[in-house]
Amino acid sequence: MYKIAALSTEDVRAYQAGAPDAYGTPPERAISTGTGNPCRHCLCHIPEGLEMLILAHRPFLETHPYAETGPIFLCVEPCERYQGDTELPEILTSSPDYLIKGYGTDDRIVYGTGVVTPTDQINNAIQGIFARPDVAYIHVRSAQNNCYQARIDRA
Predict the structure, then answer these.
(1) CB 136 within 8 A of CB 130
(2) Using one digit for the tens of pLDDT, what is the confidence trace for 43-55?
(3) How confident is residue 15, by pLDDT bands cut at 50, 70 and 90?
(4) Which residues contact residue 20 at a Cβ distance below 8 angstroms, ignoring those fewer than 6 apart?
(5) What pLDDT digit, counting tens, does each position of 73-121 carry?
(6) Same domain for 70 and 100?
(7) What CA–CA distance (Å, rounded) separates 80 from 70?
(8) Fewest 10 Å CB contacts: which of 71, 92, 131, 153?
(9) Is residue 29 domain-shared with residue 67, that is, in the same domain?
(10) Whether 68 and 107 share a structural domain
């Protein structure tokens, strides 16, 4: 079993209030084009025409060679944090495939776990990666743009 984790409400509310991103700059504001703008807090697509935030996000506490940083989107207006378990959220069902990678307790990629997975096979791929005892958690990224989508933890 596993749990899909969105960004924390505390961090998102700080960004919505103008806190600096991973590069020390305030989030940019833009208008959503629809399905290409997934919020990493509610894990839904920001509806077309609504304002959104764009910012640099590093899903690691410390910088190190494996601490990838990239752009993410957030709703400008407060949204509810995704609370699902193994049911895939909207943002993980709208692309033909995703890049998923296992990480160890040291926040380093566990080699041999990275795989581009078709959407309808994500659950099986997650279970396969978590079968390895050296995997502490998984990151899901866009297979096309490498953008961070969500974290998956063991339940």
Answers:
(1) no
(2) 999 999 999 999 9
(3) very high
(4) 26
(5) 999 999 999 997 667 899 998 888 999 999 999 999 999 999 999 999 9
(6) no
(7) 23
(8) 131
(9) yes
(10) no
DSSP per-residue letters across 72-141: EEEESS--PPP--SSSPPGGGSSSSEEEEEEE-TTS-B-TT--EEEEGGGHHHHHHHHHTSTT--EEEEE
Residues 106 and 146 in one domain: yes
Q: Does the reported pTM lie above 0.85?
A: yes
Q: Which structural domain, as residue segments, surrounds residue 57?
A: 7-75
Instruction: Name the domain count of the chain.
Output: 2
By three-state DSSP, how is residue 22 classified? coil
Sign of CA dihedral 108, 114, 120, 123: negative
Query: Quick check: 4 pLDDT over 90?
Result: yes
Contacts of 83 (CB under 8 A, 6+ apart): none
**Beta carbons of 15 and 21 less than 8 angstroms apart:** yes
Are 141 and 149 in contact by the 8 Å Cβ rule? The answer is: yes
Same domain, 68 and 104: no
Identify the domain boundary among 43, 75, 107: 75
Residue 81 domain-assigned?
Answer: no
